[in-house]
Design brief:
The complex is a heterodimer of chains A (198) and B (647). Chain A is 80% helix and 0% strand. Chain A is mainly α. Chain A has a domain of 137 residues: Four Helix Bundle (Hemerythrin (Met), subunit A) (Up-down Bundle), CATH 1.20.120.80. In chain A, 39% of the residues are buried. Chain B starts with 11 loop residues before the first helix and ends in a 5-residue tail after the last helix. Classes of the chains: A mainly alpha (198), B mainly alpha (647). Bound molecules: protoporphyrin IX containing FE and copper (II) ion (CU). Chain B: Keywords: Cell membrane, Copper, Electron transport, Heme, Hydrogen ion transport, Ion transport, Iron, Membrane, Metal-binding, Oxidoreductase, Respiratory chain, Translocase, Transmembrane, Transmembrane helix, Transport.
Chain lengths: 198, 647
Amino acid sequence: MKIDASKPLEYSTEENNNKIFGFWIFLGAEIALFATLFTVYFVMVNRFASGPSGPEIFEIGPVLIETFLLLSSSFTIGLAVHAMRHGYKKAMMVFMAITLLMGLGFLGIEIMEFFTYVHEGATLQTSGFLSSLFVLLGTHGAHVTFGFLWGTGIMIQLWRQGINPATANKSFIFSLYWHFLDVVWIFIFSFVYLKGMM
Amino acid sequence: MDLERFKVHGEPLIYGAMISIVLATIGIIVGLTYFKKWGYLWREWLTTVDHKKIGVMYILAALLMLFRGGIDAMMMRLQTAAPEMKFLDAQHYNEVFTTHGLIMILFMAMPFIIGLMNVIIPLQIGARDVAFPRLNAVSFWLFFFGAMLLNISFVIGGSPDAGWSAYFPLASLEFSPTVGNNYYSLALQISGIGTLITGVNFIVTILKMRAPGMKLMKMPMFTWSVLITNVIIVFAFPVLTVALALMMFDRIFGSQFFTMANGGMDMLWANLFWVWGHPEVYIVVLPAFGIYSEIVATFSKKNLYGYTSMVFSMIIISLLSFLVWAHHFYTMGQGVMVNSFFSITTMAIAVPTGVKIFNWLFTLRKGRISFTTPMLYTLAFIPIFTIGGVTGVMLAMASADYQYHNTMFLVAHFHYVLIPGAVFAVIAGFHYWFPKVFGFRLNERLGKHAFWWIIISFNVTFFPLFFLGLMGMTRRMYTYSEETGFGPLNMLSFAGAVGLAIGFVILVYNIYWSTRYMPRDTTGDPWDGRTLEWATNSPIPAYNFAVVPKVQTRDAFWSQKVDNIQLYEEKITKIHMPSNTGKPFILGAIFFVFGFSLVFSLWIPAILSGIGILIVMAAMSFDRDHGFYIPAEEVIATEKKLRGETV
Ligand code: HEM
Ligand SMILES: [Cu+2]
């Protein structure tokens, strides 16, 4: 393994460079995936048949908390990468832990929200609108869940091996993923909830 | 548990097939045990991360699927060979044309192309490997187990029956109550994820791992075509992922995406399917263009004419391919403006495609042509594909399409583009690159026999279908009456299909014969090739190139031979290699269980295997194997041996 000391650790080998580049391409595919889901949602948004429509079930309170949690966690993962560049393993782990906990909080609220919807008779089976809503939110939620597990795995590796080219590379890629989830959420927040409540 | 759901009710035909599958499986297991080959299979193949071996496995699986899909085709042609045939019933016919289409496109043409690109791309760009060798194995095993999942539908639970395009409401639980379309959504999903990973892997490989000096505009044409194809994969496959997921939700969890009531919208499926489906045909056809370009140049002993325009026409085709999807349903009530837009974009594709055809013709012009088997397929491709293209333009006219929509005319058209544009290409590529991989050529005489059988029979099979279509015979019609007058032409077409089958059998026999009797090649360059893959030894050593070549010109290897521009400067040093791993195989196998459980809504196994998938992924992430080094002495010895020198 050739290590190039002039570059940040996560970019220091050719393999690491390729991984980061590959991940960007993967994110391109993820953009296509979510763009399709949004399109489906926009097609379906007024097809609520005899079920409830968006404005009838959306509540701003929990959504604002979700947004706050996810946006802040995007900030803390940034701090984690910053700590990593300075070689502060402990600080990095703390910031990552905070990030993941906020992700968990986000998920908790989202699950509660889903329960409320179902309780109000708004289920996946009720209407085209609700099917598309659940699948869009659910796909994002599943990504956050996966991110939580993935991040936990990386933290274990960091804890065991410390910051080295491999773990730095993984952490950096994880941070890209996490930011991406945040961006998707901003779209969900604006075009599903805010627009739906107007 | 309701065991009835697993049973397939059928005629003697299906039971016969089931028994032969069981017997073949037992035969393979017994054979492997008897010859003590399990260890070899596991160490050399199932756990391999070598791009060449993965490519070979892709091609083997694709050939197997070619025969499975081919048998489906034969059964359909036999069923319609004469009026009022009683060979298949309507339901069985539906299942057969559905699996035929699916298997041919997704599990034969595409994997064959991906197999060739696995073998050749790293060599053509002078690299030691793909960017992510382990992920490459993951791609393969996901494809493989996805294909197996679709194939067992035939014996367990029933095959999909709503056409390869699975239009709703036909594919909904209401109209298609067997598990067949559950298999559709899950088998395609699993193999589709594999394809997406391939897409990412090869884009990085091509953009980041080219030999020093190989600028983008010095890349061989096959590499260019694969690069563009993989970009299409990365943008098109997520659409399929979503469509299949929604289908699964509708069928297994009762959501309302494509239903007729409760706000569902069946046309949403048609749109999503073809937003992926149209680019998909370019995913198989662009690499085929790349293969033909290599072959034309090699066997005309000339540079490819119009290199730059070849590249740009492929880029334009790839962009347009995303803008034409609605030409698949002009007649489903979408208005004049929409139809006109899609009509024009569709016809526009003919322009860059025409540019390519002329470039090939100009490459041939004044060339010193040698009529080898790969070259024959290339020469036959040009006129046949042109017929397909011209009839395509006929279909692209929305107003005329009301006439031939869903008739045999369409069936003839798409076979006239898909078979020369994909199947002939992979066969040509197979003959062309075979000696690179295995170190000996296929027999030319047998190759030409197979060629003539295939080319002539192809036209006998499909040309009559144009007329049948114009006479009004609709597609997917399982029988017809005497009075229609469709009988004679269908019989002709059946005869052609038999001829095609004979051609393919000769092709396979050729592989067997040549393996036993063809002389071995020690030059590594049996065709007098132009590009880098011919610059290393055959069969290709594990490390591809003993020394990474330095490229200065477009046809780098040709320049070394003709202008004496040397490729290699440095001396041989130790080479780093990735270690084999069984995890990708295990991951694929668990995905198979996961998919199967979902097909039958077996929730507990589904959850357990879902967790299993996460565990294997975690294990892959925690893996700290950094591979190993092949010492320089060993490399030198291998090189000598391959060149036929005694060590
Ligand atoms: C090798 C000889 C082949 C023969 C004799 C053959 C014959 C047929 C026949 C009879 C049909 C059904 C038409 C109908 O239902 O009315 C069909 C459909 C189809 N074929 Fe082939 N085929 C061959 C090869 C291929 C190949 C190589 C591909 C793709 C690469 C392909 C792709 C398709 C597709 C996509 C359909 C449509 C399936 C559907 O209706 O859902 N075929 N073929
Ligand atoms: Cu199309």
